[in-house]
Automatic annotation (TrEMBL):
Belongs to the peptidase M50B family. One of its GO terms (molecular function) is metallopeptidase activity. InterPro entries: PDZ_6 (IPR041489), PDZ_sf (IPR036034), Pept_M50_Zn (IPR004387), Peptidase_M50 (IPR008915). Its cofactor is Zn(2+). It is a multi-pass membrane protein. Its EC number is 3.4.24.-. Keywords: Hydrolase, Membrane, Metal-binding, Metalloprotease, Protease, Transmembrane, Transmembrane helix, Zinc. NCBIfam families: RIP metalloprotease RseP. This is Zinc metalloprotease. SUPFAM superfamilies: PDZ domain-like. Residues 122-172 form the PDZ domain. It comes from Peptostreptococcus canis.
Amino acid sequence: MNIIAAILVFGLIIFIHELGHFYFAKKAGVTIHEFAIGMGPAIFKKEKNGTLYSIRLFPVGGFVAMEGEDEESNDPNSFGKKTIKERFLSIFAGPMANIILCIVLLIPFFFFRGTPTTTFDTVIKNSPAYNVGFKKGDRIISIDNRKINNFEELGTIIGNSNGNEMKIKYERNGKIENKSISAEKQSGKYVIGIKPTSEKNPLKAIKQAFVSTYVISKTMLVFLWQLITGQLSGKVMDTVSGPVGVVNMVSNAATTGILNLVFMTALISLNIGIMNLLPIPALDGWRILMLMIEKIRKGKKIPAKIEGYINGIGLIALLSFMVFITYADIMKLIFKK
């Protein structure tokens, strides 16, 4: 049953991504030969208005086959004959659809789970917050004279404190009080040992969905930058997962309830959206970069054949990396057991 949940999650995310490409390409009048969900041999296909719609055996990708996307074409409705704006929207819409899906999924998640507030629900025993005298019901007002508006700001300031002393202004039973506290490092991040209360409010759930999408996106980009620049220490592969690892995480989320599955789906969708915007050959970000270069060169395109070769090399590199990550995922599962 969990495997079915994982397949449905990947199918939804891929469908939304490719639908973004498909909608704007179709709107621009591009000839589309096939709209496919999955890779490998087709297990279902149907042709309508000149476009083949198919579901393929392996739910690990998908594509929208457009005329003239990777080759020269004289068809006036080919992808290459469209304006830079039309091509940009057709490419950008895929990753953007994944980011929007993340926000849409997080709204009901935060509505039913509740949005975290700056009021303490639990103060963990023997934690920094417990040791300085914080209690359940205390509400944070400011840290080092910086007003705290939401739980994300609270977590960010504490996380960036590096264990230095912080002056906290808080409210207890209607009275304003002050305390000094130093966060401690646990599992690689600084914490003070509190759990917030949650509030169920539809407007706050919408706001929280946008805020969380921004915060998580920023965290992903910082991680990628640290990975590229070699700033990460220790076993980097322990923090990276491929298809097998992600399926395992989705399966685990499915066993713990629908809300956790919705949250995991949102995270994966956002991850795919962000990753596809990176300027790496074979990804949407690379095609966007080529369009930017074309714009700078005043409409002079990179030859489609050369761009196709570059994308082909990039695809081989990405597939090789995926095989390596998959092997690492399998090894982690084996030794974990």
